[in-house]
Design a protein that fits this description.
Elements lengths: L11 E3 L9 H15 L3 H4 L5 H18 L3 H13 L7 E5 L7 E6 L2 E5 L8 H10 L1 H4 L4 E5 L15 H4 L4 E3 L2 E4 L2 H13 L7 H13 L4 E3 L4 E3 L10 E6 L6 H9 L5 E5 L8 E8 L6 E9 L16 E2 L6 H4 L5 H12 L2
Parallel strand pairs: 4-5, 5-10, 10-11, 11-14
Antiparallel strand pairs: 1-2, 2-13, 3-4, 6-9, 7-8, 7-13, 12-13
Helix pairs in contact: 1-3, 1-4, 3-4, 8-9
């Protein structure tokens, strides 16, 4: 996900774990209205060719919602069925929940270091920055660096900036995004200004975004220019960087993979990523049932339609066919890590 200029400090669990009574017709109607009016991918997914099919599908679900109203599990399944129509993992219903992550550094041997980064959440940026800065003396002398991103569902691009000098060899252009200029999205940014939920110093930038969205309401607007990632110097070491990813790698994790593939130092190992990047900058909106939150993307990537990532993912340079035990690994070099290390040592 791109760097939002407002603050979104939430961690959630999926709707599957929600047990409160669900007023199904109200929640489904709310989800449909929000998706149709504000979701950045709606017009791409429901074009003229698919509009009749979509309307029939939506109406069937609305009729079923009236029948099952307070049957929580069936209601949750109905909401999931509606959102699954769009095949976008950035579009979902959640409830708040704490999750434990493991950010670790390990020196595998005298020439090889390992960093495990299981999240790029905005709240984790300080952890990542500290992990890199505290171990920079070792990292800058390591011939091989392994960055393990398994389980990383993304967050914000700002969180991986301290990793960029370690992998950088040449400039990289990050494709920009377009914001859906809907009434709901405009209201969201106006509320951010009103409530003070924005990054310090970004007031003028947010107000300009609001002005542009109002000027082009009903369409899409591009705010700012494409970013070119450029570092003043290329670090002598690490000489080689192996990045490990699995099918949990999504959103900003995938943005980091795209950027890393541009580097001559980097080899990506593992399996194809989740494919959740084309529509991003998700925001939370409260649903009629207390505690339920719908998250939807406000932006679409300017890589589209030529270079989609959603439901395709990013293929690794070297596939790993071994069992993936990343949840057990924590601070240990497991089989996937050792595979990447041995590959890089054997291939000069």
């Amino acid at each position: 996900m791109r760097n939002l200029i407002v603050l979104l400090g939430f961690v959630y669990l999926s709707i599957a774990g929600y047990s409160q009574n669900c007023h199904c017709d109200e929640n489904l109607t709310f989800a449909i209205k929000t998706v149709e009016n504000d979701y950045a991918g709606f017009k791409d997914k429901v074009d003229k060719k698919h509009k009749k099919e979509y309307i029939a599908f939506k109406n069937r679900l609305l009729e079923r919602a009236k029948e099952i109203n307070n049957a929580t599990n069936r209601c949750n399944n109905l909401l999931r069925q509606y959102l699954d129509y769009f095949k976008d993992n950035h579009l979902y219903v959640e409830m708040r929940q704490n999750i434990n992550f493991y950010f670790t550094f390990q020196q595998i041997d005298s020439t090889t270091s390992l960093i495990r980064i299981p999240s790029f959440d905005s709240d984790d940026k300080a952890i990542i920055d500290s992990l890199v800065s505290k171990n920079m003396a070792v990292l800058s002398k390591s011939s091989i660096l392994i960055i393990d991103l398994r389980g990383n569902r993304g967050g914000i691009d700002d969180s991986f900036k301290s990793l960029l000098p370690l992998i950088y060899t040449n400039p990289y252009v990050m494709k920009g995004v377009e914001w859906r200029a809907s009434e709901g999205n405009i209201n969201y940014f106006e509320d951010c200004l009103k409530n003070g939920t924005y990054k310090v110093g970004k007031e003028k930038e947010i107000q300009e975004q609001i002005n542009q969205m109002k000027k082009h309401q009903g369409g899409f607007v591009t705010i700012g220019k494409e970013d070119t990632i450029y570092e003043q110097t290329v670090m002598e070491k690490p000489l080689k960087v192996g990045i490990i990813a699995n099918d949990y790698c999504a959103s900003s994790c995938e943005e980091f993979i795209l950027m890393a593939k541009n580097s001559r130092k980097v080899t990506v190992f593992g399996i194809s990523t989740a494919g959740t990047l084309d529509y991003s900058n998700t925001i939370p909106v409260a649903m009629p049932t207390k505690g339920m939150v719908l998250r939807y993307p406000m932006t679409r990537s300017k890589r589209l339609p030529e270079n989609p990532i959603d439901n395709v993912g990013i293929a690794p340079d070297v596939k790993i066919d071994l069992p993936d035990n990343f949840r057990m690994a924590k601070d240990k070099a497991d089989d996937w890590v050792l595979f990447a290390v041995n590959y890089l040592k054997a291939n000069n």
